[in-house]
Specification:
Strand content: under 5%
Structural class: mainly alpha
Oligomer: single chain
Number of strands: 0
Radius of gyration: 19 Å
Mean pLDDT: 82
Transmembrane segments: 33-52, 58-79, 100-119, 131-150, 157-175, 181-201
Number of helices: 7
Order of helices and strands: HHHHHHH
Distance between the termini: 27 Å
Largest sheet: none
Shape: globular
Keywords: Membrane, Transmembrane, Transmembrane helix
């Protein structure tokens, strides 16, 4: 009969489809947010790597103190705006989970910043080692949060992106300074860009 109740799996699939449709209609979705972060990582860390090359003629503080912070602040602002805008059409548990996930990012970022700053203040690490500490731990946090998001929303692509970021974090430390910035550019930024493309195709095809 047509009035038979939906199974648990069918209900979850229906909710997921409705959420995706709402985000597309409101201009949200992961594709645009990942594209913003891809731009920030590729341009920011790519420029930072270039400044470490012999004869670059650009002081390191220009990238670390101006270019990277501005790009990342822009990505954060755009992500926040897009999340709020897309969340307006979503109610109930999905909205609560999304808010908790966002708070998790904020708490994790603040906690990691305190840890890294405190370790840096001990002055037991060289400048190169401090660079590895900051870039490696932040890339690791990014990977863990994407793993968590993939588990919460049952999104295999998001989970895979998180796993890729964790591998990239380990690789960035293993290759040392200044090649760690190249890993962040190619693996980190490239991972965001690939994820953005796949999500964009999904949005267009309605999957």
């Amino acid at each position: 009969m047509d009035d038979e109740p939906l199974s648990a799996e069918e209900s979850l699939n229906l909710i997921a489809q409705q959420n995706r449709r709402t985000r597309r209609e409101l201009g949200g979705g992961p594709a645009r947010m990942l594209a913003a972060w891809a731009l920030a990582w590729i341009v920011g860390w790519g420029f930072t790597y270039v400044t470490t090359l012999p004869g670059a003629g650009v002081p390191g503080w220009v990238s670390g103190g101006i270019v990277v912070p501005l790009l990342f602040l822009g990505a954060v602002a755009y992500t926040t705006y897009t999340s709020i805008r897309s969340g307006r059409g979503i109610r109930g548990p999905s909205r609560t989970v999304g808010a908790m996930y966002g708070y998790g990012w904020a708490l994790g970022s603040i906690g990691l910043m305190v840890v890294d700053i405190r370790i840096t203040q001990f002055q037991a690490l060289s400048t190169d080692q401090v660079s590895l500490l900051w870039t490696g731990t932040w890339l690791l946090l990014t990977g863990v949060m994407y793993l968590a998001g993939g588990m919460v929303w049952q999104d295999k692509l998001m989970y895979g992106l998180g796993a890729w970021m964790i591998v990239s974090a380990a690789l960035s430390v293993l290759v040392g300074y200044p090649a760690n910035f190249l890993v962040l550019t190619v693996c980190g930024g490239g991972g965001f860009l690939l994820g953005a493309i796949v999500y964009f195709v999904r949005e267009k095809t309605g999957r």
